[in-house]
Amino acid sequence: MDYYSILGIDRAASEDDIRKAYKKKSMQHHPDRGGNEEEFKRVNEAYQTLRDPTKKQQYDNPGPDFSFNSRDFQNGRNPFAGTPFENIFGQNPAGQHGRTPRNRDITVQATLDLEEVIKGKSLIIQYTLSNRNLETVTVEVPPGAREGDTIKYQGLGDNGDMRFPRGDLNVRLHIKKHKKWVRDGDNLVTKIGINVFDFLTGGAIIVKTLEGKGLELKIPKGTQPGQTFNIPGYGIPNLRTGRRGNVYVTVNADIPIINDEELLQKIAQIKKEL
Question: Which of 24, 70, 199, 201 is 20 to 30 A (C-alpha) from 134?
């Protein structure tokens, strides 16, 4: 497997070139964005090798190939006896092809605001391995990420037992609740109180989106409290298509407290006429 070809770079690529190529390829092949899962795994495998100077040197300058005869397994012999791989495969029963042992996976949580879900975010995550070494990884959260989504990074888990490959790193996403907005799939839902007279005469209000943009929403005369209006294209981007959902605004009545007796009499007169 040619890791350089997978990332679309040459062997003289710098660390920055490798990182940029990985970011581009991982977004292109991410399964949640409609990409190929197997290709996504190959991209991650290539990056985890080429980003690590030691692994990259070993990949660029491979050592001897430990070949073996598959019949040795069937006959109960350990074909890796006397090699550095003896302890890994030595305990496998004859005739069984078990999964290669590896170190444990590590799961960490990354927290985002609802506003950050719209554009995506680059996070710096730090976690501690069992040998107490501190590990740092940059996590690219795509736009439209959901509560509980998990981003897997192969080969960045624990490395406590140096005989075995590292486990994986699982970054589980937590989206903080917003004071005014609620997420419903790719849509955003909110409630706004407006002057009771706007229901009678009609009017217009400004709806401030999560991005801070002011949208004008016209309230037709005769609108009933509790009615919901739809503003398309200002919701959450879909993970696969990138197309944004809608904003749904439910309008409720704000009842003013009126102490002016003359004004109250006028309102009473209007009520009688209606």
Answer: 24
